[in-house]
């Protein structure tokens, strides 16, 4: 396979994981980087030995010489940069949250479709080893037809030290973290017909909500609860694990803290260790997320080579993004939201 050349825009906190992962991915490497902050450009350029460095994305595209762009900036610039990629006919990966609003997200998908370029959202949580293990157990028919689920992320981890901007936005946990949990719920139990949400702010030092409880009606008739909190002090901190409970017609699945997968059915109960690998550049407790960054980037390259749609394509991600918008709307109005009508 010829090696694809990539350019990365946004050399901040999380992009370092993406750069490490690109070193490991088969079939692609990063040949140019861009950040409007000269200090970040230097830190990442020096750490990963990238000579081509740009302070301005227009200049990066004007010079060209790459096959795809990996947009790792925060949400404010996503629409501008994705549309720039579309104008230049360069396939694009865009970090989550995909856009500021659902109408922006729809416009970005449309721009890439019209330009005929693949667009993938870096929605990596469904690529975590334990989440894949749950999906595989369901696909192997281990519990029959699932009728109920719970997707839970409760923690008191200080995310604000690495990402100070998270304390400043009007919106916090649903937009930043719940977006992943909602995507996992869709990935495991299918698309969602309607949604009801309640939110709270417990930490007085932040602007947005840090607790959310969301009830999902899936199109296949299953019901699930997505509950997320950064205000939950536990005896053993689970960050950044998503815990899952699934009840099916023939049994149950439990993904428990410490990466245990318990499957109970007519044959009895089996418990398997579904821990993520600790990649050479990874560090605990982030290794679960870091491994999924590698997995989604490898998927990007593999699907490009096959000319096939990506699991978290822009079009797919509209259905996750709609759940985020619906959750805020539901919490504000105290009403159930028809998700299908938003798409
Ligand atoms: P950050 O603020 O540390 O880094 C963003 C960088 O982008 C900064 O260096 C900034 O100077 C640069 N930038 C912004 N706009 C630019 C532009 N128009 N042109 C060039 N450079 C520009 O943010 P972060 O914490 O690294 O988060 C980046 C994105 O990653 C966010 O959308 C965040 O939600 C997401 N994220 C995803 C995960 C995950 O697991 N998928 C985890 C953490 C963060």
Describe this structure in words.
The chain is an alpha/beta fold. The chain has 2 domains: 4-117, 3-Layer(aba) Sandwich (Rossmann fold); 126-285 and 319-342, Dihydrodipicolinate Reductase, domain 2 (2-Layer Sandwich). Helices cover 35% and strands 25% of the residues. The strands form 2 sheets. It has a 9-stranded mixed β-sheet. The protein has a 6-stranded parallel β-sheet with strand order 3-2-1-4-5-6, sandwiched between helices. The longest helix has 20 residues, at 287-306. The two termini are 38 Å apart. The model has no long low-confidence stretch (mean pLDDT 98). Residues 9-15, 34-37, 40, 57, 72-75, 77, 95-96, 122, 124, 163, 176, 289 line the site of nicotinamide-adenine-dinucleotide.
What attributes does this structure have?
nine-stranded mixed β-sheet, Rossmann fold, 343 residues, 25% strand, six-stranded parallel β-sheet, alpha/beta, Dihydrodipicolinate Reductase, domain 2, 2 domains, single chain, binds nicotinamide-adenine-dinucleotide, globular
Q: Quick summary of this structure?
A:
The chain has about 350 residues and is an alpha/beta fold. It has helices at about 15-25, 40-50, 55-65, 80-85, 100-115, 130-140, 175-190, 285-305, 315-335, and strands spanning about 5-10, 30-35, 50-55, 70, 90-95, 120, 145-155, 190-200, 210-220, 225-230, 245-250, 250-255, 260-265, 270-275, 335-340. It is built from nine helices and 15 strands.
Distance between the termini: 38 Å
Please tell me the CATH architecture of the largest domain by its name: 2-Layer Sandwich
Total DSSP E strands: 15
Task: Order the strands across the largest sheet as they lie in space.
Answer: 14-13-12-11-7-10-9-8-15
Q: Point out poorly predicted stretches.
A: none
Counting structural domains, the number is: 2
CATH class group of the largest domain: Alpha Beta
The gross shape turns out to be globular
- What small molecules are bound in this structure? nicotinamide-adenine-dinucleotide
């Amino acid at each position: 396979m010829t090696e694809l050349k990539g350019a990365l825009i946004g050399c901040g906190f999380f992009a370092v994981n993406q750069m490490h992962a690109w070193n490991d991915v088969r079939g692609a490497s990063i040949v140019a980087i861009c950040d409007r902050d000269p200090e970040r450009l230097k830190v990442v350029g020096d750490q990963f030995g990238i000579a081509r460095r740009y302070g301005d994305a227009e200049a990066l595209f004007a010079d060209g010489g790459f096959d795809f762009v990996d947009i790792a900036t925060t949400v404010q610039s996503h629409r501008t940069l994705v549309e720039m990629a579309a104008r230049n006919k360069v396939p694009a990966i865009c970090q989550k949250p995909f856009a500021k609003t659902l109408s922006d997200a729809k416009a970005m998908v449309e721009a890439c479709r019209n330009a005929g370029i693949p667009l993938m959202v870096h929605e990596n949580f469904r690529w975590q080893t334990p989440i894949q293990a749950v999906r595989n157990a369901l696909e192997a028919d281990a519990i029959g037809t699932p009728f109920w689920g719970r997707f839970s992320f409760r923690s008191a981890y200080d995310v604000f030290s690495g990402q100070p901007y998270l304390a400043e936005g009007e919106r916090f946990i649903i937009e930043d973290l719940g977006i992943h949990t909602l995507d996992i719920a869709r990935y495991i139990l299918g698309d969602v017909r309607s949604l009801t949400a309640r939110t709270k702010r417990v930490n007085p030092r932040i602007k947005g909500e840090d607790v959310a409880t969301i009830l999902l009606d899936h199109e296949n008739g299953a019901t699930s609860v997505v509950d997320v909190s950064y205000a939950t002090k536990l005896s053993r901190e689970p960050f950044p694990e998503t815990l899952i409970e699934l009840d099916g017609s023939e049994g149950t699945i439990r993904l428990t803290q410490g990466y245990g997968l318990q499957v109970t059915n007519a044959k009895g109960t089996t418990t398997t260790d579904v821990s993520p690998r600790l990649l050479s550049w990874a560090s605990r407790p982030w290794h679960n997320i870091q491994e999924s960054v590698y997995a989604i980037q490898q998927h990007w390259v593999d699907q490009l080579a096959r000319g096939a749609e990506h699991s978290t394509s822009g079009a797919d991600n509209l259905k996750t993004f709609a759940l985020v918008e619906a959750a805020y709307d539901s919490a504000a109005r105290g009403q159930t939201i028809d998700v299908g009508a938003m798409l």
